[in-house]
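Q: Structure for this?
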Amino acid sequence: MDWITTVDHKKIAILYLWAGGIFFGIGGLEAILIRIQLIKPMNTFLDAQTFNELITMHGTTMIFLGVMPVIFALMNAVIPLQIGARDVAFPFLNALGFWTFLFGGILLNLSWVMGGAPDAGWTAYTPLSSTSYSATHGVDFYTIGLQIAGLGTLIGGINFLATIITMRAPGMSFMRMPMFAWATFITSAIILFAFPAITVGLVLLTFDRILEAKFFDVAGGGNPVLWQHIFWIFGHPEVYILILPAFGVISEVIPTFSRKRLFGYSSMVFATILIAFLGFMVWAHHMFTTGLGPVANALFSVSTMLIAIPTGIKIFNWLFTMWGGQVRFTTPNLFAAGFIPTFTMGGVTGVMLASAPADFQFHDTYFVVAHFHYVIVGGLVLGLFAGLHYWWPKMFGRMLSERLGKWTFWTFIIGFHLTFFVQHFLGLMGMQRRVFTYLPNQQFDTLNLVSTVGAMLMGVGMIIFLANIFLTSRRPLDAADDPWEDGRTLEWTIPSPPPEYNFKQTPLVRGLDAFWKEKMAGHKGMTPSEPVGPIHMPSATILPFLMSVGIFIAGLGFMFSRDEFGSDIMSFLFNNYIVTALGLLITFGSMLLRSLIDDHGWHIEPEELEGR
Amino acid sequence: MTTAHAGSVDGTLPHEPEKATLEGRNKVLAFWLFLGGEAVLFGTLFATFLALRNQTNEGPSANELFHLPLVAAATFLLLASSLTSVFAIQAMHRGNATRLRNWLLITVVLGLSFLILEIYEFSVYIRHEEFGMTTSAFSSAFYTLVGFHGAHVAFGILWISVLIGQLMYKGLTVVTAPKIYVSAMYWHFIDVVWVFIFTVVYLLGKVG
């Protein structure tokens, strides 16, 4: 019950982590099933329909329900601590964001047991995703589930923007802010401007499917390419929503374990902003083969390649940070070091794909699959592993085992390269993506076998990671305030795990890497910027949970509103939008309660603070 | 946070009660950000409409459908409601809760009349012109864009009505003031969107 009503950012972080972890596991199982099907030519392990459902759900689950929540987990766990705040700007909304994400994710995955998962690919291209080609409710689960989950992401993004703008500790100017906080800030800005586009796209697709609107129906005057534009004007920035937080993590981990400040801090900040800006300018490079014409293709080709410049700045800054540093290869730093070459390879194939003429050859082959897995798994997932191992002691008060951590790293990264490196060649040799099997004797056989073995090895790495969590969680709390001993930022100045109010006294920030600066000046901790006083805390509340339940019910009701049911009562309830209305009533009723009931919160008194 | 009720200690409100507390300032800032997202939302809907506005699929076209006097009347009502919401905020800054409530009530009534005109307009199209959601890509885009705006108006009416209730129940404080202020921001925003709808959908539909 405590977990359902909490508004504490540290607990919400843990909720995000577990929920995201479970969805990540589901997405991983789907990946393994896909690879088993492709282990040999003309395999009959899965049929084509199931395969389509698996690839769709693998992509959708991993991006929206797997890695995004884990990113949000890290942000929630770390950002208020890094900027010296007692919580986020809107603790209530923070909880609401988590619950809408979770119920959206549950709705999406209910499709497996309620008559068929979405099967039109994670991009849901029309007309494949129209009712004529996808007659089950699968794509409805996709549109409505993602809509609800996306609401949570948008709420989270606005919350982090407001938090970072208004709640930084005294002395922490923007240019003294840790890189992970910068990455969160820019990522949240991208979320704010990218997610409303997919909101509209999903609404249009929902209307086409449920209300028989004609947006994407050529026979009614609609235009399927319109979907691609809307999808990718969201979808391309989404790539940077995913990768910028990983950049932020790497920029924290590498300086800590090199005992040096980040090389070129201000160029890192501007590179991040530039990447975010360019990220919005390049969406049509996903659409070179739809026939936009040479001028559009050339423009999008050049703007895409421009992104290599700020990204290159980042890569070199990380290398220069390590150069001459006292580098310690702890588990987080192993992941960070592994990230650099792996992500760079993904970036290089990105430049190859950005060349429009070459893209006509690479398009829809395993070369593309290899490219984006190098970016998202080799970049983001390695970054998340680095971040999780790095901040685990701060989040849970326990060190993860270094020995098991190193096993995780080596099995995962070797498995990763085995899986995806060979896919570049499969793609160049002409193996198509999204196809459930292939003919023998096209030289695809061995490489596919290698790829599948690699995927299994990645699975082993994940199991070792889970074992690490399980084994260490049984030990008593052992993490010091600054467990890596070289912590540079504010989160390492307070106990692990932090008390619910984070900082007894808000710290005074006197420079970049605030904690490191104090250490170098010979001080033990931060200078406080305020006397010890009562701390105002928000009350726990069930309302965010209820609001999300309401949206969930409304979504289900709308989705089945045109169905014929066996029983008259069911048909009556659904066909007259009664279920939908009921769900919305719960949500709006909760909003009304929130508005009418005063929440004065509660105070932690100074005597109590001193007592702990 | 510790200054949550600072303004009301001696019974008087600060000049800008919506910005008197950190919570209030956060609310106003976050609402500006939210409106940025809303701008993208409507931008995407406008782009969709512009892409599909001539795809009538042998159904009625914009020129045949639209009846400008009706739309102009609706526009007048909505723009007037924006003005009355400005008067409401001015009353709030002077600390006059009664005038604030009255101007908000007038705003709600004007918004409601706009909505009734819009529902009437839609019902005419559906009943007499056989122009429904499924008629053509143009009709789908029209109802979605204008309907989304209408839904925003409806939500605004509900929201401001609840706030009026809250104002009468709790009075004007540093807690209620930011809520009223952001609801006025929201109301201006949907007004601005309507100006674009009036131009891009109706005027361009008649002459373009």
